[in-house]
Amino acid sequence: MAQISQVSADVQIKCGAEKFYGFFRKNMFQLAQMFPKNLHACEFLEGNDFTTGALMQWSYDIVGPAKVKAKVDDVDEQNKSITYEAVEGDILSHYNFFRAKFQASPNGESGSATVKWTIEFEKADENIPTPEAYLDFVSKLSLGLDAYLATN
Q1: What tens digit of pLDDT does each residue of 84-132 get?
Q2: In the chain, domain spans
């Protein structure tokens, strides 16, 4: 029986946790315009808000052109976190299970925050690499979004 593994990264950002989390809740579709090299499209297929069970489709290029359908697995307003789980698409040819979560947490009174990204996965076979490329991408996306939010 295969085992679910995880990789994670903490990204320090200057904008507050609420502002970062709020962008994902209200303006996430702008990410395709902000990062057109990697994110090509994002849309809701079922539901039209970040509520548990909503279904989204992403077209992206992180380790090659791909599409994924992902359900919103959990939205936690209090802890400022959103969890997505792949339910269909190219990524599931490499991983039997793939779930990504971010949580934005304030850093004391400085107004800054830490964004923790966690990817849980189960490889389709032992030759598949860990999803470090996805973790690197969301870390860079967090820093780019932080720079954008600092000016808006």
Answers
A1: 999 999 999 999 999 999 999 999 877 899 999 999 999 999 999 999 9
A2: 5-151
Could you tell me the two tokens for 6?
């995880």
What's the whole-model pTM score?
0.92
Give, in words, the CATH class of 5-151: alpha beta
As a whole number of angstroms, the distance between CA 50 and CA 38 comes to 22
